[in-house]
Every structure is written in C-alpha cells, then in structure tokens.
Amino acid sequence: MDLGLKDRVYVVTGATRGLGNAAARELVADGAKVVVTGRDEKSVTAAATALGPDAFGVAADNADPAAAERLVGAARQRFGRFDGILVSVGGPAPGFVADNTDEQWTTAFESVFLGAVRLARTAAAELGEGGVIGFVLSGSVYEPIPGLTISNGLRPGLAGFAKSLADELGPRGIRVVGLLPSRIDTDRARELDGLSPAPEAARAANESRIPLRRYGTPAEFGRTAAFLLSPAASYLTGIMLPVDGGMRSGF
Ligand SMILES: NC(=O)c1ccc[n+]([C@@H]2O[C@H](COP(=O)([O-])OP(=O)(O)OC[C@H]3O[C@@H](n4cnc5c(N)ncnc54)[C@H](OP(=O)(O)O)[C@@H]3O)[C@@H](O)[C@H]2O)c1
User: Which domains does the chain have, with CATH numbers?
Assistant: First the structure.
C-alpha cells in the first residue's frame, strides 16, 4: 500500500530517540521529510544526521512558548511546506500520589500538556486541508497506571483536548489523532522498569499482562504512527489508538 507520504513534510517533536525518533524514521522511509526536535543540540544534530538528508534537526523544548512557531517556520524554510505534526515529549516524573511535588506537576504541565496545546494550536492555524496533528499520549488515557500519577492526571485531559480539536478542525479537512503506547521498548520504558528493585522481574510481570506477551518495538510504534499521519488514514480523526499488544482491558 502506498501511504502517500512522498514529499510531505512533518514536524516530529521529542524525536532524538524513543517513539518520536521511530516515527520520524518510518516517515522518512516512506518518502516524507521531517523536522526533528529534542532539547539537546548535539543529540538533535546526531539524530537528524542519522535520519539522512530528508531530516532537519532543531533544538527546541516543548515547554518553550516560542517553539511552535519556530518549528513550523523551520519546516517551511527547509522543505517548503508543512503537512503535519507529531507531538512527543519526555514522560512526566513517576510517583504515587504522595510522592509527586507541585514542582513536578508544574514542570510536566508545561512540557507535556501546555506544550502540546501550543504546538497543536500553532499547527492548526498553519495547516491546510489534508493536514494532521498527532499526539503521543499513553495507555493512561483509558486506564490509570500505578506509579505514574502525573501521567494519569494529564493524559486523559490531553485526549479531551485532542477530541475538541478534531471536532473543530474536521470541517477544514484537518485530522487529529492520538497514539496510546503502553510498553514499547524505549529508554523511558527501561527507566520505569529500572525503578523497581528487580527490573527484569518487573519487565517479565508487565509482559505477562500483555496478550502478545512482549514489549512492542519502537519500529512497530513508528509504523503505526506513520500510517496514522499519512494520507492513507484520511478518514481517521478524533481517535485514540492503543499501540499496546492488547494490554488495554476494554475494547
Ligand atoms: N515507551 C513507552 O512504552 C511509553 C508508554 C506510555 C507513554 N509513553 C510516552 O510517550 C512519550 C515518548 O516516550 P519515549 O519512550 O519515546 O521516551 P524517551 O525514550 O525518554 O524519549 C523522549 C524524547 O523526547 C525528548 N524530550 C524530552 N523532553 C523534551 C522536551 N521538553 N521538549 C522536547 N523534547 C523533549 C528527548 O530528548 P531530550 O531529552 O534530549 O530532550 C527524547 O528525544 C513520553 O511522553 C512517554 O511518557 C511512552
């Protein structure tokens, strides 16, 4: 199937590694061009170089109110157009209710929540018919994850925001989608398992709760993201798609 990605231009934030990077890789593999971001200049340059000439790196923090305009501007300047954005970002601090400080909540709100809102708002103003806005959220949108209280608090709200946006942008032919990973084998997943005194046992316990009995690979997530962002998914909007090997208990 031709995804129709050739020469389309996407901004992918939080893409120096992990899920954003995997999505950027699959977009480029199918002929798209990408502006990739992360906070660290060196990692951004390295990631863009590894992705090849169809990638351009810009160091930007999703929490920065000026990031959105800068990134859309970079897409237009470097590649001459802007067709969509995938918002990924470092996950919020882990912790149970009593653990998380106001500062952790505020930091996460700025980068995970308000950053995504600002990026989406700017993209919405810039995109034309056929444009797409994607959010990398979490399985916590539907089912709270023990020990990830901030994620459990913020992600469902972002899903609500995404749904509002899908309703508002649909008449302009712009789609809005969410991806809900649960356990994809990235640095973040390994860091979370590493919080347990027995990381390997923690991973095995998680895997035993996944019907496919394994963590997903970044490439599996990336392919799903590339499809959702592509014109091949032209009638999908307002959806939250679990990418979780069946882990979500509802249907
Ligand atoms: N992996 C999973 O299974 C899973 C499951 C549920 C939810 N998620 C969520 O999905 C998102 C991505 O996860 P991941 O596994 O890819 O994480 P990751 O491996 O930690 O990668 C995060 C990426 O985002 C960048 N980043 C971090 N903070 C940023 C900021 N404020 N502005 C711009 N870029 C930033 C990082 O680079 P720098 O640090 O250099 O900026 C890195 O490129 C996270 O929000 C995570 O909570 C992941």
Answer: 9-186+218-239 (3.40.50.720)
Query: Is-contact 105 39, C-beta < 8 A?
Result: no
Instruction: Identify the residue whose tokens are 């950027």.
Output: 24
Which tokens hold the place of 248?
């979500």
E-strand stretches of 55-187: 55-59, 84-87, 132-136, 175-181
The predicted pLDDT at position 240 comes to: 98
Distance (Å, rounded) from C-alpha 16 to C-alpha 116?
Answer: 17
Largest distance between two CA atoms of the chain = 51
Give the binding-site residues of ligand 1, using a 6 Å CB cut-off. Answer: 13-20, 37-40, 43, 61-63, 88-91, 111, 136, 138, 181-184, 186-189
C-beta atoms surrounding 38 within 10 Å: 29
Which regions of the chain are under pLDDT 70?
A: none
DSSP reduced 3-state for 66: coil
